[in-house]
Model the fold of this input.
Amino acid sequence: MHFAHFLVDVWHWLTAGAQWHGDDGVPHLLANHVRISISSLLVAMLIAVPIGAWLGHRGVGGVVAINIANVGRAIPIYALLVLAVQIFGITSPTGFGWTGSFVAFVPLVLLGIPPMLTNSYIGVRDVGDELVDAARGMGLSEGEILRRVEIPVALPFIMAGIRTAMVGIIATATLASFTGVDTLATPIYIGLGTNDHVAVFGGAVLVALLAVAVDLVLAGVQRSIVSPGLGTGRAGRRRAMEPVPQAA
Amino acid sequence: MPAHAVLGNALGNNANSWVWWAWIPAHQHEIYAYLNEHLLLTVLAVGYGLVIALPLAVIAARRRAVAAVVVPVVNAVYTIPSVALLGLLLPITGTGREPAVIALTLYTLAILVRNMLEGLRGVPADVLDAADGMGYTRRRRLLRVELPLALPAIVAGIRLATVSTIGLVTVTFIVDQGGLGRFIQDGYQRDFHTPLVVGIVLSVALAVVADLLLVRVERAVTPWRRRAR
Done:
């Protein structure tokens, strides 16, 4: 069968020695993809979670905090990547080597912020008043209430936002291979240019595996850091309302 | 740069400025054609998505075992980056409308199934009991009671799916489609700002207009909410 032959070719492509060495090899591309994704996720998280949580604690800025995710969804992500190339040029400025690629880093941080900001806001805002009152009665300061009561209780929601952001960031980093950044999708980009469907399909398999694997890892992290007592309580039930991630 | 060139860039009367205004009327045919393609891909994807998601959600709402399979599967598909999904389809379908519509439809499913399921599960049990007590058959109960009550959640899902599909269409330039994404790719390849900016602005405008129209639909199908305001 035609497609079976094709899959055999893909298998040979995936297992060829050349695929696993050098600057075009899978380990190098995977490492760069992961580096770009993690550095932008962490920076976006440092910006979005404290702001979202604080706004949620104070109960202000809801219109912005909730709608920012919807506004982000409407922006074509590929355009943001191209725009970054045209503004910054393709090479990283000195000191930004840790980002993997500065031109991909800037748009990735921008698109990572909205889901985490929105979820941190909603998660903290909806922590039961009785919990906050009890903490205040025990003499906790506002900062302590946020850190020791509200954020732990809102953690399922915050983690859902982090996972949503990560899915979007991994996918957009994939797209960055079309603006000259080395990622796991580089074989797809090269394969499209040379009409090599085996490389396109093989690269797509690798990227899909990475995306699903990263989401599973974060799901595991979520399970291990969220207090088990929240599973059956209010916050646990709210998990059904996770916002929809942004695809890219 | 001489002063008149800086001024020229700022006013947009040459090819180096962010928007070279003269370019726009000269390319109005492409603008209409790409806008048209963008709309067509969006409508096809959301349309097919609805046709597939509705029966899935109705069955999943009745049987937990089905929901336990359907929901994780549509969510897993959603985590696959579009470049990879298109790359997986390409050897099977070749380039063109087919892989673009298939990929975009698959992405709408995660949003639509989730919202429909939420809507259907949100129908209060006593309402269902009342319908049963009145002798409604299961089919009639679904059509006359459950779906109307789930409608706000379903329309909210259509809104989300439409807006995110409009953003995603631009990526399908990979399989020789793309709608307004063709302008974005052209701007990248020629290092030329104007088509890029035109592509971004029109794509965002399309998403905003579609969202506003669907908000009106949302209001029209939930007349009981207006009283609360």
Chain B touches chain A through 46 residues (CB under 8 Å). The CA atoms of residues 183 and 195 of chain B lie 5 Å apart. The radius of gyration of chain B is 22 Å. Chain B is about 80% helix and 0% strand.
